[in-house]
């Protein structure tokens, strides 16, 4: 299990990476601002019968639970949500329970997650009603090779690129792009220059938006269309 410590605000902090799992000020507000709004959600899933979100860095599952809460309020009639996540270093069941205990209105979904935690290595499935979580425990570089799906939206939520560079590398970002639907999007808290370049090289348009809390800016973007080389240039 990934060892964590608790700061003065009872926020979980990774001892391996020296980084908190979510914003000390308000983790849920951070999720809504960076990942939901950054990907144009819930507006974008209103016109889709099936919508897939993928996440690098599952952590405490807070992004999933906040997304589920929003989906419950804002789901389209007959819509289906699929959530795929990648996590190399799961925390213990006790730490997961403590991290999520502060949000009473998330308790029902949190309990489903806690009861089936910790997940085994490789792929597993957890159902939240009719919403399916597919979680791969292992190196995301390897797990993505085994996934045959594509996401409408990506939550790129690894620890700080300076402290966890493996989850932001150029090869991994190319794999993310390959597993993104046309016009699919990403959002992330970081604006590190080399991460922006890796995302752009993978085929995403990359732009900045206002950051959350003390962060002045964060990133969002969309997969650029692939030009059909056989089509006339003046078509």
What's the arrangement of secondary structure elements?
Elements: E1 4-6, E2 12-14, E3 19-20, H1 27-36, E4 50-56, H2 62-74, E5 80-87, H3 93-100, H4 107-115, E6 122-128, E7 131-137, H5 140-146, E8 151-156, H6 170-178, E9 180-188, H7 193-202, E10 204-210, E11 217-223
Parallel strand pairs: 4-5, 4-8, 5-7, 8-9
Antiparallel strand pairs: 1-2, 2-3, 6-7, 9-11, 10-11
Largest sheet: 8 strands, mixed
- Number of spatially distinct domains: 1
Total strand count, please? 11
Computed over alpha carbons, the radius of gyration is 17 Å
User: How would you write the strand order of the largest sheet?
Assistant: 6-7-5-4-8-9-11-10
What percentage of residues falls in helices of 4 or more residues? 25-40%
Strand content: 25-35%
Poorly predicted sequence stretches spanning 5 or more consecutive residues: 227-235
SS field, number of helical segments: 7
Distance between the termini: 56 Å
Q: Name the average pLDDT.
A: 94
| Envelope shape | globular
**CATH architecture field:** 3-Layer(aba) Sandwich
**CATH H-level homologous superfamily name:** Vaccinia Virus protein VP39
**In the CATH scheme, what's the topology name?**
Rossmann fold
Oligomeric grouping of the chains: single chain
Structural class: alpha/beta
Query: Can you tell me the CATH class?
Result: Alpha Beta
């Amino acid at each position: 299990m990934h060892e964590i410590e608790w700061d003065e605000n009872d926020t979980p902090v990774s001892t391996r990476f020296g980084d908190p799992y979510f914003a000390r000020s308000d983790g849920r507000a951070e999720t809504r601002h960076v990942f939901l709004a950054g990907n144009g959600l819930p507006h974008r899933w209103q016109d889709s019968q099936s919508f897939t979100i993928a996440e690098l860095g599952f952590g405490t599952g807070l992004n999933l639970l906040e997304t589920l809460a929003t989906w419950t309020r804002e789901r389209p009639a007959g819509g289906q949500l699929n959530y795929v996540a990648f996590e190399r270093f799961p925390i213990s069941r006790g730490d997961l329970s403590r991290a999520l205990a502060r949000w009473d209105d998330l308790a029902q979904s949190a309990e489903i997650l806690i009861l089936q935690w910790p997940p085994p290595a490789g792929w597993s499935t957890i159902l939240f009603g009719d919403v399916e979580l597919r979680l791969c425990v292992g190196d995301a570089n390897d797990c993505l090779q085994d996934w045959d799906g594509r996401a409408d939206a990506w939550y790129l939520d690894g620890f700080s690129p300076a402290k966890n560079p493996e989850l932001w590398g150029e090869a991994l970002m190319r794999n993310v792009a390959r597993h993104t639907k046309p016009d699919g999007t990403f959002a992330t808290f970081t604006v590190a220059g080399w991460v922006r370049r890796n995302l752009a090289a993978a085929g995403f348009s990359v732009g900045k938006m206002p950051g959350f809390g003390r962060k002045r800016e964060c990133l969002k973007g969309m997969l650029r269309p692939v030009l059909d080389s056989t089509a006339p240039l003046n078509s």
